[in-house]
Amino acid sequence: GENVEQHPSTLSVQEGDSAVIKCTYSDSASNYFPWYKQELGKRPQLIIDIRSNVGEKKDQRIAVTLNKTAKHFSLHITETQPEDSAVYFCAAADSSYKLIFGSGTRLLVRP
Amino acid sequence: ETGVTQTPRHLVMGMTNKKSLKCEQHLGHNAMYWYKQSAKKPLELMFVYNFKEQTENNSVPSRFSPECPNSSHLFLHLHTLQPEDSALYLCASSQDLGAQYFGPGTRLTVT
């Protein structure tokens, strides 16, 4: 089955700097890759997603890149702000409705 | 109410109790999911219902029993749980293989 690995587990950046979180997946049939942000005590919220027919997608300060050959995808947050502090989860899914999540990255943006 | 709702938000139960968690989605989606979130495994898929039919159960112990009476409602029936079952139980829904939207979760404590 699918296995998703996520790095780093914790990331601390200065406000205004960029943050990058990386994930790898094992199943070449996976074709959908969402990213979720979970603030303390709240539900995971979808922030961006990408499908395997696209290499890069951007939404304001957030971008995701996908390398199907290498089976890895990354989340890029530019001009970080304190409210970006949260746990971020990557995930991968194939056609079976089964979303497999990474272990999460705790991002801390220092003011 | 919009989105995905879950009740109760908090539940404390003894190991011999029987209780049920409820999830309702107001998004018109056709797939619903149960996840378990704990410190050990941040987001672990338990059950998937697609068009009211269970398509994945991920080797979940039989003390957890799902029920999906229609595409808007999902239940998780609990009986003879163990202390290690204490966790946050999240419900989610999606339209086909699209983005999954999570409910606020039920914080379960088994004493």
What can you tell me about this protein's structure?
The complex is a heterodimer of chains A (111) and B (111). With 111 residues, chain A is mainly β. Chain A is 0% helix and 57% strand. Chain A has no helices and 11 strands. Chain A has strands at 4-7, 10-14, 19-25, 32-38, 45-51, 56-59, 62-67, 72-77, 86-93, 99-101, 105-110. The termini of chain A are far apart. The model of chain A has no long low-confidence stretch (mean pLDDT 94). Chain B is mainly beta. Chain B contains no helices and 11 strands. In chain B, a hairpin with a 6-residue loop joins β9 and β10 (101-102). The mean pLDDT of chain B is 91. The interface between A and B is medium-sized, with 23 and 20 residues.
Précis, in short:
The complex is a heterodimer of chains A (111) and B (111). Chain A is mainly β and 111 residues long.
How many beta-strand segments of chain A?
Answer: 11
- What oligomeric state is this? heterodimer
What is the terminal-to-terminal distance of chain B?
32 Å
Uncertain runs of chain B are none
Give the strand content of chain A: over 45%
Strand content of chain B: over 45%
For the CA atoms, what is the radius of gyration of chain A? 13 Å
Overall outline of chain A = globular
Note the total helix count of chain B.
0
What's the count of strands of chain B? 11
Largest sheet of chain B: 7 strands, mixed
Number of helices of chain A: 0
Mean pLDDT of chain B: 91
Q: Characterize the main sheet of chain A.
A: 6 strands, mixed
- Helix-residue proportion of chain A: under 10%
* Alpha-carbon Rg of chain B, integer: 13 Å
Q: In sequence order, what are the helices and strands of chain B, one letter per element?
A: EEEEEEEEEEE
Largest interface: A-B, 23 and 20 residues
Percentage of helical residues of chain B? under 10%
Q: Would you tell me the overall average pLDDT of chain A?
A: 94
